[in-house]
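Consider this one:
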Amino acid sequence: MRAWPAPDVPVLPVRGPEVRVHDSATGGLVELVPADGTARMYVCGITPYDATHLGHASTYLAFDLLNRAWRSAGHRVRYVQNVTDVDDPLLERAVATGEDWVALAERETELFRTDMTALRVLPPDEYVGAVESIPLVVAMIERLRDTGAVYPVPNETGGEDLYFSVTADPTFGAVSGWERDQMLRIFAERGGDPDRPGKKDPLDCLLWQGERPDDPAWDSSLGRGRPGWHIECSAIAREHLGADFEVQGGGSDLVFPHHEMSAAEAQVADPEHRFARAYVHAGMVALDGEKMSKSKGNLELVSRLRQENAEPDAIRLALLGHHYRSDWEWTAADLERAEALLPRLRTAVKAPAGAPSGPVVAEVLAALAADLDAPRALRAIHAWAEATLDGVGAEAGAGTQIALVADAALGLRL
């Protein structure tokens, strides 16, 4: 599957600090210095049954900042993202609308690409669909079956579904740190089936769903069927990044069950290696008092804002005003503030001389290296712009340096 075109990223004349990010598994900051010079990151992608909302955009922007911070620190980055282009929510939406599920997935994936292009998000090196990854999924399930971690559960059609025994991973629970009662409650809310008869443990998760009438299915050594959600990411990440990669990322609603299950499956298939070194999660964005959600329909869409002539750089600036790990609520005022600030910053960087740029460049890079603190970086640039517009300082070409670091580190065109 193709990704989207990459924006140009300028090369800075100075190097940024090594990057530290908050690891959900340990609850603290970890410094991620790749051993071989290449930082590896897997970020869970969309299920393409609706348009990109600002919650999505905020999450992918967070990992775009990490990508850029690693590059500023002098590292190469290998970035992989999936597309869950076959799953229950997509199939249910296709039935409800009468649209072919493949056409629906292709259309919404293309809309996502255009939104990411407009927001100047760096594309993944590998953009991988679940359907094209079925051979990888089957191979990993076969490895899990060899370990004794897979068992069948009869389904309503007379066939079988295959489940993963979470107790096969002695570290299960280490990603979220949750107690079992919390896991059981959230599992039911996020696509799990704790009450299904025939399961050995209520938390065991689906690996392979046997064929159902009117559902897509593929031939495999496991029988005709389609993959479960968690195993998709386990298989794609291991294939394209190997073991012990630096970051598994996504929204905070993926901590459990998705990231917990993906890690457990990969680690049982290969018990000598961890799945990821750190688990990094972006906060949730609300609208009208509730988390933005496709299922609830309370969405502000990137594409809608663009159609209403919002400049993509202003949308990006509005999102950067919130720390990536915070939960926050979108309002029209976010965009209004960004639309007022952006031209002021652009006026400042075009000044023939300005306030000293060196300390600002250093502060921006330090802020991004310190758990991707974009609001702190923006405050430094804003303060510089106000000083420059007030006539403070006489450094020729200072604006060029500020525009350069804003582009390289924050993805903003000033």
Notes: The mean pLDDT is 96. The domain at 20-287 is CATH 3.40.50.620 (Rossmann fold).
